[in-house]
Amino acid sequence: MKHKFTLLLILVSMTQFGQTKMEFEGDKIKVSFGKNIDSEKTAIKFTQGTWNVTLYSLFENNQIVENAFPLEAGIYNLIITYSNDLYYSEIALYRMSPKKEKISFDFYEACGKIFCRIKSDYAQELNKEIVMNKFDNEIQEIINSVKD
């Protein structure tokens, strides 16, 4: 049976600012990008564990990864990366199984920075507006050495 999956690549007219938005939507995840945000440079993941890390890739390669969402209650680390030099990380607690979770990420640019509004039905600590941070110089050097 094929997965029920709707990928929306919609250019939505925002009347107030005259900007366009690109949206990707699945059963559990919705990701939208404002003008000047390159969706191909964005990755969103949950990780769980310290030594034996389980990776749940939610959005990468310009698409939602539908069946990658965690199904068990637990402590997860949300990691968002953009263009190999910006990131955001947050601990999320799912007290009950997130099987029916609806989570959205709305990326936009303002004042030369990239922001994201996150909304979650199950992990209340994720309901916030964040700014993407630059990696410090030491981490950036490590990333650059791995790419070479």
Q: Can you characterise this structure?
A:
Helix content is 7%, strand content 48%. The protein has 148 residues and is mainly beta. It has a 6-stranded mixed β-sheet with strand order 1-2-3-9-10-11, with no helix packed on it. 18% of the residues are buried.
The biggest sheet amounts to:
6 strands, mixed
Number of strands: 12
Tell me roughly what share of residues is in helical segments: under 10%
Order of helices and strands: EEEEEEEEEEEEH
Query: Strand share of the residues?
Result: over 45%
Mean pLDDT: 83
Number of H- or I-type helical stretches: 1
Low-confidence stretches: 1-18
Structural class: mainly beta
Which geometry do the CA atoms define?
A: globular
Strand order of the largest sheet: 1-2-3-9-10-11
How large, in whole angstroms, is the Cα Rg?
Answer: 16 Å
Task: Please give a handful of descriptors for the protein shown.
globular, 6-stranded mixed beta sheet, single chain, 148 residues, disordered N terminus, mainly beta, 6-stranded antiparallel beta sheet
